[in-house]
Amino acid sequence: MSYAELMSHAEHIRRNATEATLATVEGRVEYRPAIERMFADVPDAFRSLAQLPDPARFDPMLAELTGVLQGLGGQDPVSGVTMPANPELERIAGAALALARWTGPAASGFRSAFLEPFPALVRNQFIVAAVLRAALAAQREIWVRARDDADQIAEKTLDAIDATADCTRNEWTITFTVMASVAALLVVPLSGGAALAVSAAGAAAQVVAAGGPAEAARTPFSGDDAVEVVERMHDAITLLHGHIRDQRAKVDAALRATHDLVVGHRRLFVADGGGWSSFSGALGYVH
Questions:
Q1: What is the DSSP string of 37-58?
Q2: Which DSSP category does 73 fall into?
Q3: Are strands 171-176 and 82-83 parallel, antiparallel or unpaired?
Q4: How many CA atoms lie within 13 A of 93 on its CB side?
Q5: I need a surface site. Which of 175, 198, 215, 243 has the fewest CB within 10 A?
Q6: Packing angle of the helix pair 6-22, 226-264 (nearest 10 deg)
Q7: Whole-model pTM above 0.90?
Q8: 146: Cα separation from own chain's centroid
Q9: Which phi and psi angles does 271 have, rounded to 5°?
Q10: How far apart are CA 226 and CA 230, in angstroms?
């Protein structure tokens, strides 16, 4: 089975549940219309899951933010990968020597407001870019796993309907892997005593945050006839929607905390007089 065929799977569930129920009653022709109506909403139940965002749409944005990290240089606090220092940025430190003979209030202000804090500003901007990239990676991983879980629900439902013909208790388990898509929040220290909350995608960002990624939720189901099995299918779909909301809320909370911190500690990120509006606006990049 595959996610691309989810609506086809839904139609198979509707058809198989109808036939399995008809097999248990007498007067099949007479009862067929009523039984068909019982399962008519199965495709609709999967329709929203068949329209989940394509994870690939995040790839260009992730590549763009990787370019930002490479331009700033530093160690990614999420993945641990170190980007080589940018020689062009390193030349800023040499400006102090070139301006050694420059004196007066303007010279003092330039050194204190720009030259001296520049290395710390670059480090902190790198961390913010890493936060944004981690949030995008987390969003991508949520949709990768949510699609897998939707396909799993369809597959397990079809298997359970087939198993209703057996005399044994019909039980199955669905592992909601989306619940393990976002790791715990990782606190990253910044210059000046502030900290950013990073939401890290476990597999996508190749990181294990404090406490490790959440365990995938294994949920048992049971149903002895097609009607019960389809009822449990609806339950599983409802659970999946809830798990998706929970995981997205983790990413949103980390981004809100990061936004508030950056706005509240402006001088940790941008030198006085330059680039603040465009920099603060970038925090809404992943929304």
A1: HHTTTHHHHHHTGGGPPPGGGG
A2: -
A3: unpaired
A4: 9
A5: 215
A6: 150
A7: no
A8: 10
A9: -65, 150
A10: 6
